[in-house]
Each structure stands twice: as C-alpha cells, then as structure tokens.
Amino acid sequence: MPAEVVRPREWERHAIQQRLRELLASRGSNARKGGDYYIDESDVGTYEQKVLMFHDRVLNKQTIKAVSKMLEDYSMDWSVQFLKANKDGTEVTPEAGVEVCSHNLVMDIHPFCTPEELVEYETAQHLYDELVPFFAARGTDNALGGGDYWLWDDKWVPLAHRIHINNIEFLTPTLIDKIQQILKRYPNYVLWMQIDAKAPGVDVPCEGIRVFADHIEEDWNRNALREIFKDRFKF
Question: Quick check: helix, strand or coil at residue 123?
Fold first, then answer.
C-alpha cells in the first residue's frame, strides 16, 4: 500500500479554496459585501475553512456531497464550515450553519441558547475583543508557536478564555496586573495561561496559571521553570 502523501497545510488551504470557488460558482457570487457567499481567505493556522452564507440558497444536499467528496483529496483534518452571516459580512451570533468533513460526515452548527447563555456568549466575545488588541500591542500572536503567544479564538469553556505562552519572557507580573485590570470589568471570567515555551533538550512542563480579577491560581512549578529558563522566567 503506497504511503500517504503529506503536503503542507498552507498548500492544501489554497487548493481547497480554489476547489470551493469552482464548486460554488453556480450558487452565486463570492464577495464579502454584496455577494451570496464569501470564501474566507484568512489563515488562522487551523484545518477549518470558513464560508460565510448570506442566504440559505447557497447550500443544498448536492453541494454538501460535492464538498465532502472534494475533501477526501486532502488531509482528513480538514473541514469546511458553512456559516450563516449578516449582510455586513459578519458571522451571526451565536454561530449557526453546517460543518462538512470528508466521507460524508456532516454536523450541524446550531446551538440552542437561553437568554442567559446568549448574554454569556456576548460577554465572552466582548472580553475577547478587548484581549486581542491588548496582547497584540505587546507581542506577536501565532497559533503555530512561532510568536510570543496564541490567544484561542473559540469559547473553549464557559466564562473563560485561553492563551498559550510561546515566549517565556512575554509573561511578566506586570502583564498579569494589567490583565486583572481588564478582568475587573468581567468579574466572573478567568484567563487560562498555559506555558508552551520551548527549551533545547528539555521537556518544559505545560502547566500554567489561571488569572482572575482578584487573584491568581497557580498550576505550574515555579522552581522547575526557574531551573529551565533562569532569569528569563520573571516569577
């Protein structure tokens, strides 16, 4: 049996986007403003390709089947998310639509939300919208580990956001203090900070800390991190 051909994720992303343009050409125009749908070309470092839909006529059973069949030509990690969108080009809140994977695997993205859950969802989004520019002003976001940190863009668990620290020097007591100032406006929320920094020839413990508005809960081993990173570890 021949070995599976492994191709770069970025190459497959571009190829999938081109195939989607061909498959969806008969379903209307591809444009974020004034179109019938929009094939999102941004790269967030994952195996998910988004297509924003501005009306339900974009998607039918034949299109779903064709997209699923197309995905069989690429890594099995890939999926295409067809998401309902507003006329201004933004996704509806909360997310709603269909996620298509290879081999006819299709999942609905249509969570039922109570009024309380919707408030929580919107509050989590507001906090995320504050955290994005806060961290961007201080370092580089990279989901593949090449920057200072990676701030997750999904909701993960209720009342929480999560960030991976790739550069140990990025994490300082001053940074924690400023995060807590933000969290004072969101007293029910916590920011999970996981250590993903690397050190040559050493297995770095991946535990981190949980930052609340009024306190910090530590899961890491300070002594172990000091031994590994020396004065680069600021705690």
Answer: helix
Per-residue tokens: 21: 């343009």
- pLDDT digits over 165-223, tens only? 999 999 999 999 999 999 999 999 999 999 999 888 888 887 899 999 999 999 898 99
Taking the whole predicted model, whether its pTM rises above 0.70 is answered as no
Give yes or no for a contact between 182 and 131, defined as CB atoms under 8 angstroms apart.
Answer: yes
> For residue 103, what are its two tokens?
């081999």
- Sequence-distant (6+) residues with CB within 8 A of 82 are 51, 53, 58, 59, 97, 98, 99, 100
Q: Is 145 left (phi over 0), alpha (psi -120 to 50) or beta?
A: left
| Of 184, 162, 165, residue with least CA distance to 235 | 165
The residue type found at 218 is E
Tokens representing residue 92 in the block? 């509806």
Q: Residue 74 contacts by C-beta under 8 Å, 6 or more apart in sequence?
A: 7, 12, 15, 16, 102
Q: In this predicted model, what pLDDT tens digit does every residue of 99-134 receive, in sequence order? A: 999 988 888 876 556 778 778 888 988 999 999 999
Q: What is the per-residue pLDDT across 8-67, written as a single tens digit (0 to 9) for each?
A: 999 999 999 999 999 999 989 999 988 999 999 998 889 999 999 998 788 888 899 999
Report domain extents, the chain: 9-109, 115-232
